[in-house]
Amino acid sequence: MLTSPTIEKLRELKLTGMLKALEEQNASKSYNKLSFDERLGYLVDNEKLTRDNKKTASRIHKAKLKQQACIEDIDIKPQRGLDRSMILSLAKCQWIKEHHDIIITGLTGVGKTYIACALAHRACLEGYKTMYKRLPRLIEELSIARADGTYPKLLERISKLDLLVIDDWGLFKLESQQARDFLEIVEDRYELRSTIISSQVPVKEWHQLIENSTVADAILDRLVHGTYRIQMKGESLRKNKIKTKDMKKEDE
């Protein structure tokens, strides 16, 4: 039977995984057959598993992914422009380890954000610090940070992310200062960290989305070359959902 002082000490040390394992061992006679080393090993393994799970949950929470998505739920079909072997390869996260980038393009509603969030979710599971940002919100945060003096700290925080997901690239044309801010992020991460960019606009039209052509050249030179490309096809998934709902209503 576990003594009260032992339980309190484990709680005080925040060894919750070990405490749970001890209580489990105490409640079952089957553990009596195990040696001391085996029982101790089980306690240590359970403590490590508990801590790893907490860290993973924390990474997912801090990533602030727009959608709850996972690789296993991706509808991989050639007609969507998705290659099974490529998606499964990206799921191993070797591209993050090697500091490569991914560009996902396609019409609105085809599932670009879901793919980006699924890859980001896998990155969180593999231990990588991740953050999701819509470009309009990111540009706004950079502008505010420059005004209140926190600009260097924000850039430093973003530069330390293993994976940065930038969604909705190309919704508006970047003005000169906005483009320079974005270049700072791209430059800090170039060949050091990984980035996913999702856009409705084809890559060949990106240059005209940046007001300053010189800055545009610098940004695209760092973003476009040597990246993994996912060109999604097909109709809007949102439209298909609406059609399905309408059909159900007609059948009622």
Question: How would you describe the overall organization of this protein?
Answer:
The structure is a single chain. The protein is α/β, with parallel strands linked by helices and 252 residues long. The chain has 2 domains: 4-62, no CATH class; 64-236, Rossmann fold. It is 54% helix and 10% strand. The protein has 11 helices and 5 strands; from the N terminus they run H-H-H-H-H-E-H-E-H-H-E-H-E-H-E-H. Strands 2-3-4-1-5 form a 5-stranded parallel sheet. Strand 3 (163-169), helix 9 (176-189) and strand 4 form a beta-alpha-beta unit. Helix 8 (151-159) packs across helix 9 (176-189) and helix 9 runs parallel beside helix 10 (213-223). It starts with a helix and ends with a helix. 28% of the residues are buried.
Topology:
Layout (H helix, E strand, L loop, with lengths): L3 H9 L3 H12 L8 H28 L20 H7 L3 H4 L4 E4 L6 H14 L4 E5 H14 L2 H9 L3 E7 L6 H14 L4 E6 L13 H11 L4 E4 L5 H15 L1
Parallel strand pairs: 1-4, 1-5, 2-3, 3-4
What can be said about this structure in brief?
Helix content is 54%, strand content 10%. The protein is an alpha/beta fold and 252 residues long.
Shape assignment: elongated
CATH architecture of the largest domain: 3-Layer(aba) Sandwich
* Domain tally: 2
CATH fold annotation of the largest domain: Rossmann fold
Instruction: Give start-end ranges of low-pLDDT stretches.
Output: 242-250
According to DSSP, the number of beta strands is 5
- Output the CATH class name of the largest domain: Alpha Beta
Distance N terminus to C terminus? 61 Å
User: How much helix, percentage-wise, in residues?
Assistant: 40-55%
- With strands numbered from the N-terminus, the spatial order across the biggest sheet is 2-3-4-1-5
Secondary-structure element sequence? Answer: HHHHHEHEHHEHEHEH
Looking at CATH, the homologous superfamily of the largest domain is P-loop containing nucleotide triphosphate hydrolases
| Biggest sheet character | 5 strands, parallel
Structural class: alpha/beta
